[in-house]
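Recap for those who missed Tuesday's class. We walked through two folding examples back to back. For each one, the amino acid string is listed first and its predicted structure tokens come directly after. Nothing is annotated here on purpose, so try labeling regions yourself before you check the end of the notes.
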Amino acid sequence: MRKILFFLMLVSIQVYSQGLILSSPEERSEFPKLPADKLGFAESLPSSYSLEKYVPTVLDQDGGTCVGFATFYYALSTMYNIEFDITDPKEKYVHSFDPYFIYSIHFNDENDCDRGLPFYAAFEKLGKIGAKKLFYPPFTNCETSWTTTKLANSLEYTTPYSINNWYYYETENMSNSSIINVVKQNLYNNKPIITGFKFVESMYSYTTENTLGVKSDGLWDPSTYEDEKGGHALCVVGFNDYKFGGAFRIVNSWGRDYGDNGYMWVKYSDFTAFVEEIFFLELNENIQELPPTIIETNNYKRYNYKNNSNTYSFYEGQYLNGGVNGYGIWSDKEDNSYYVGRFDDAEMSGYFLLVDDDGVFSANAVDGKLQDFEKLGFASDNSLMELQLEAKKYFSRLGEKLSIRKANSSRKSNIRAKR
């Protein structure tokens, strides 16, 4: 019966999932409020500003996971990309954060991604356990089961990305112009903004049945007579005073076919009418703004090193026993490639993911060299097979095809030799 009802909804209008559980006024009264010194007032603002070049590629959410996308995948990823000046599409994708991580833990005993979350549940876990990089295992889904040991092992590479604080911007007694200015000022200070909107059907894509829906120009033009149907989490990444008479640029999690390549424009007046919650994140002190910016902890680091061509590449990941040991991301600027997996004494070891100009691939590394899974008898290694199938399912949900990289002996990792 549930499948039949869902099918009937699909034929009437183009349906996407939402999933934000809006907080009650009583709950909001207890939220940490945005301090006056963090309002980000500037003497003057440009007529337009955008963080879009730092935003990871638009994805299509599965289930009611919009809070994970708006908070972990879009906002947090964009903040780190700004810190490290990451604008290359491949590099942004590799360094983005898993939107499903929070759901797999929160609903560990229920296996239910259809149920939504309130923002504070995501923020509290982000402060305690951090965020998992998209390409780090385990490759989560609604059926992911967490044991105490499995979670403890993952915390070694998720807690370095925990946040110091999150703040709620209380709009109840603020004028519309003040709300607009605070959002614009913080965007101009390179802070993406997490928002919760009252959801109405005009937020869906335009169809012959939904003539108020968002068209290819990205404009959301809601009507006041529409019935509210829950909440939807979105991330604001820009503004333009001349676009549609003044509008915010907002990234959605309904795929690249939605609106303007996955983005929507919300006029300032509609923003103040439909936004219910506005939040800001504060990154932790692990980031040190040296030239270049690095991550520095006892067991997790980001640093740059010179390649043979005298260009700079980066390693970001676990740094155990005084060296490159554990899960990490190695960027090779010579090959314009990114390698994600476990390193032993600065060499690739075991299951790896590779992102280059041809796509996303998986392979096994032996003695620092990527091999072909089939050549190595992939199916006979149960641990590798399980991880491979887990990854394939995971990236399929993200809309990506995961392929097996053929053996290439030239792809060898030895980071120490290049430092």
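Example two. Treat it independently of the first, because the proteins are unrelated.
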Amino acid sequence: MNVKLSSLNPGDKAVVVRINGKGAIARRIADMGLIPGTEIKVVRKAPLGDPIEFEVRGYYLSLRKNEADIVLVKVKEYDSL
């Protein structure tokens, strides 16, 4: 099931499925490396949920909630021990 990137909690991992936007904001997000197939991990959220920090391709990226809202992801299942 695909969900918005902004709905994930710290520690969650996911794979980008698509960007639901057009124009400059979608281009900016793609330029930051959030393209389909990219693995992403939620590092932390600010107390009011904006901004959100992610780990993508070995670097840390902060997005505003409205930017993370347009990125659809598929949550990765946790590895069993």
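Answers for example two:
Helices lie at 24-31, 65-68.
The chain has two helices and six strands.
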